[in-house]
Specification:
Layout: H1 2-15, H2 19-56, H3 68-72, H4 78-87, E1 104-110, E2 115-121, E3 126-136, E4 139-149
Antiparallel strand pairs: 1-2, 2-3, 3-4
Helix pairs in contact: 1-2
Amino acid sequence: MKHLFAFLLLAALLSCNNKSEKTELLSQLELLTTEKDSLINLKNHLETKIDSINNESNFWYNNRIEGKQLLELGINNPEEYIVNTLKQKPELIPLKPILGGQMRFMNIKLLGKDCLIAYYEDGHICGKTIYSYHFMNGKLFFEIVKTCSD
């Protein structure tokens, strides 16, 4: 649509005999070109933002669906609750730290309503573990399903 308008504007410019009309049409063409470039930049910025948001969100877990039980118990953000609860339990990390390090959970992704994968390290060694989890009597319990260490 904008290309058609720019083309018509250019055609009008070429058919004009009056110098002030040509100047006005050139000015409008320049403004439209600047606006088009600005819109392209905005589109690219928004696409980058959408990609960033998609990468941050968890494809495998949805609070409304998999977290329904915890939502019904009054936990507003089940995913955050589960992640934070596991982070407070470094004793569940199956690797022991070396060289004075301290094992910490670094990245945790929920994989549905009863499993998650966690990456942990102490700065020297690292590993990944799949945990199952369940909520019972007001507490969250975790069990190791499978561990992989690098």
